[in-house]
Amino acid sequence: MRWDRKHLLDMNVFDRADLDELLVYAEHYASGKQYPELCRGKILATAFFEPSTRTKKSLQAAMLRLGGTYIDMDDEEKSSRAKGESDIDTLRMLSGYSDIVAIRHSCDDAVAQFASVLGRPVINAGNGSSYHPTQTILDLYTIQKEKGSVDNNVVTMVGDLLEGRTVHSLAAALSNYDVHVVGICPDGLSMPDEYVQKVKYEERVIDMIDLDDTLAEIHPDVIYATRMQKERLTEEQKREMQRFLYIITPETMNRLPEHAILMHPLPRPEKEDQTGRSMLKPATWDIDTLVDDDPRAVYYRQAAYGVPTRMAVIATLLYAGDRTHSPNQ
Length: 329
Ligand code: NCD
Description:
Blueprint: H1 16-30, E1 43-48, H2 54-65, E2 69-72, H3 87-96, E3 100-105, H4 110-118, E4 122-127, H5 133-147, E5 154-158, H6 165-173, E6 180-185, E7 200-205, H7 211-218, E8 222-225, H8 235-239, H9 241-244, E9 247-248, H10 250-254, E10 261-263, E11 286-287, H11 299-304, H12 306-318
Parallel strand pairs: 1-2, 1-3, 3-4, 5-6, 5-8, 6-7, 8-10, 9-11
The chain binds N-carbamoyl-L-aspartate.
N-carbamoyl-L-aspartate binds near residues 132 and 227.
């Protein structure tokens, strides 16, 4: 065990035993058994300085499922941030009203800096393009649940490997497992070395038009598709955007192994041109909605696993060192 259980800030805090324990807890919470007493009287504060649907809502749902409650930082125009309040002052107030704080911020080192002064356990809910630890725990849980184990898989990550914090986090976490990681990206969006130093990693820099051939050749067990991180692209990269985009279609799936699973942290952006498409099956980038009914497409279940895995994180941080929080009891 390596994690001090004070905060959850990046993926380097974990060893395999820490991850195994979190996944065991998550499995208990996923079992449907209720734990209304575990966090009774406890308050989670969610402070997201970047947009979010899944991470914020599943953290809040996790706290409710544990018998606790939450307060949320209002949107900028409705809070004192409209009066010019600094991020740290807002956070000091929220942490004074709560027992645990989840923060998302666009600056890579902001969450760790805030955690050093807030006096509460802090969950990094995404820091710039660096890490997204709770997403990674739910990603590991998804692979284990859907494939039987995280070990012994070829995990192929597709898309913006330069700026995507979900792939950075997952690659770093996979150094605790016996896996082979293959990155597929367009020229200019390669995975930074720091995230793959300790994992068996190879990268295919391709024209995204060749994605189907490349995937078929790799014969992956897990495909982890990601969104172009448009908000983090430079002006020059934005001009090149067209070159970076791709779509996994039913034809792509036809060429993938039967045992493979297709993951995505979501959201996947809608295309502008919706000609011939419906509200239920809009045209989208990354993964065409026509793939959603393929049994290998697990991304909606993946998102739902965000609740039990975040229950495991919250309970562990609030009751660090106190085994009475064990869902076994
Ligand atoms: C991801 C994020 O915020 O990094 N979203 C999420 O939390 N599921 C992925 C993304 O925005 O591309």
